[in-house]
What we know:
The complex is a heterodimer.
Chain A: H1 2-22, E1 27-33, H2 40-58, E2 70-76, H3 81-93, E3 98-101, H4 105-121, E4 128-131, E5 148-150, H5 155-168, E6 174-180, H6 183-199, E7 204-211, H7 220-228, E8 233-236, H8 240-252, E9 259-261, H9 269-273, E10 281-285, H10 295-307, H11 317-332, H12 338-345, E11 349-351, E12 357-361, E13 366-369, E14 371-378, E15 388-396
Parallel strand pairs in A: 1-2, 1-3, 3-4, 4-5, 6-7, 6-8, 8-9, 9-10
Antiparallel strand pairs in A: 10-14, 11-12, 12-13, 14-15
Helix pairs in contact in A: 2-11, 3-4, 5-6, 7-8, 11-12
Chain B: H1 2-32, H2 39-57, H3 59-86, H4 90-112, E1 128-132, E2 135-138, H5 139-161, H6 163-173, H7 175-180, H8 185-211, H9 217-232, H10 237-256, H11 261-267, H12 282-286, H13 289-292, H14 296-307
Helix pairs in contact in B: 1-5, 1-8, 1-9, 1-10, 2-3, 2-4, 2-8, 2-9, 3-4, 3-8, 5-6, 6-8, 9-10, 9-14
Amino acid sequence: MRNTTRLGLSTALALVIGASSAFAENVKIAFIDPLSGPFASTGTNGLHQYEFAAEELVNKQGGVLGGDKFEIVAFDNKISPKESLIQLQVAIDQGIRYIAQGNSSGVANALTEAIDKHNKRNPDDRVLFLNYSAVDPALTNDKCNFWHFRFDANADIKMDALTDIIAKDDGIKKVYIIGQDYSFGKAVAAAAVKFLGEKRPDIEIVGNELHPIGKVKDFTPYARKIVSSGADAMITGNWGADMVGLGKSVLENGYTGPIYTYYAAADGITAAFGAAGDGSLRLVSEGQQNPPASERAENYVKAFKAKYPDGNVSQSRITNVIEMLAKAINEAGTATDVVKVGMALEGMEHDSLWGGKIFMRPQDHQAIQDVHIFAHTKVEYDYDNSGYGMLTESTVEMAAMDSPTTCKMKRP
Amino acid sequence: MDLILVNLIDGLVTGLLLFMLSAGLTLIFSMMGVLNFAHASFYMLGAYFAYQISLFLGFWVGLLVAPIIVGVAGAGVERYGLRRVHQYGHVPELIFTFGLALLIEEVVQFIWGKSQMAYEIPEVLEFTAFAIAGNSIPAYKIFMIFMSVAIFIVLLYVLTRTRVGMIIQAALSYPKTVEALGHNVPLVFMGVFGVGTALAGVAGVIAGPVLGTFPGMAIVLGSIVFVTIVIGGLGSLWGALVASLLIGWITTFAKSYNIEMANILTGIGISPPENMSESMFRDLWTVTSPQIADILPYILMVLILVFRPYGLFGKRDA
């Protein structure tokens, strides 16, 4: 009996080893983001978008290097920088060469530093960092390194585009800035003050305020201040429940101007605003879905919704990450020598699935792309199955193409 | 001046909402002598049940049915949970309600997910009742005020003017004697617990559309409810009302006016430090009232505990 068990075990083990060696040619991408805790819904939705993009855009098209498949390996970092570093080590130990992360610039800062160190010390198993959402400008300025590539427009680029639009609107004379009391909220406020001062010195900033993050029960008093300040427009970097609370409260209490936001979409937010946000909510982001850029983009969204009925294609840049990585690997002719892949990614121009071009700027590894201002309204391709979604209202082509960077890129 | 009136109304709404939660909690406390940590979770359940019902039958049915379901659930918790734990003393009871709060939050996340629900104000009430200097007061807020005031009056009437109320009050103070007179005291306790949680449920139903229906809604409100009943005096209905309104107005006014600490300090004759960025009191000097609005109730609680430990209207001696 015992012998049989042992035999069975060793057979199973042999099978596992055999199986893993058969799949050894897979190009693995470690997805390190929150899959549990308060931000799990954002993380899980991101993971689904990665898995779907890898399957649709690479594996079904025949893979890379003539047949190697992309495989997404998920690691839960509980949105903690410390936990992320542990997961990074696990991923590296598994022989993974590509690290994708996006939620929280705090995590991204920790990862980019750790990866830089690791790559210096271990030239034989270097890794690349594909940052798809962390928008702290420092990552492509003072803290830049060769291994980090950012596919989202950073906070400054977004604010630059946003203030371009505000500057064109002569009706706006007074602006109210409000945000969550932490690094990102402060960065948004600072950028808004800076750009508005440059572009429209006549605009009066009637309020610049921070509120405790995730602790405000009722935004009514803030809303009263905003309304009585006579603001024609308001800018906020709020996300999650703070975004919904603030937005709904100002709308209920008589504010009628535009609300310019960074993150007022998907993950339940679009559904929560519904009809109330129509005509007021604006969002600055890349990757338009309405009107769809092409039939291919349309089919992609449809196929995603068919697979994940409750999900949203909310981070469209994920398809750019996958497609550009595949292209770079093919160009470099290797998936293991990440220096060559990194060199191929640098300066790459790519036609995005969502229309427009993506240019990976070599001097700081910041993707330069079209940045859109979306309006929250009734659309064909909605979020949260609510009928409402993001309609492109205006576009800044190749936003911040010539913007300065303090990055001094050191190449290996 | 106009804004003062608007803020008074906003503070009243916040305060009355808080009252509906603290009323049930303070009743339950005077009955069991134990704080119910899961009280705010019943508030959350009220909002989620009402949201689910409103999808099929509309807001008004939700307003009617959801609190009843929450109340029945609360009564069930008392009958089959707390009553069994009771014999082991207060600490196990406390731990039981604490665990229940965590459990309810996880179950809510499991069923409805982590995103915010699209729970909406009914269309009939989606208009502006009146406006004061450009600040509109939504009709729904007026509705909230009337609901809470009506509940307070009914509660006060039942407790002080009816036979049932007399038995409840007697059972709260002298359970043994009341039992000896032939009344079913455990049933009274179960009823009070059910009604208390149902009140929290009502608060959830009417607050859900304005404050948001999401898994964190219980935590956001949980601690402030305890603060309210401590300030008001544990077990006192009037205390709960006064403390709720006080907290509502204090936080609203602190957030609405940018009172800077620097002005207060110079006002009482302290000159600002010469080099602000080097000064160890920099944070104190630069703080503004909206930043500390949400901790003001806690400061008030500490003061109350120091100077009047049994609360504003509490009967118990310290």
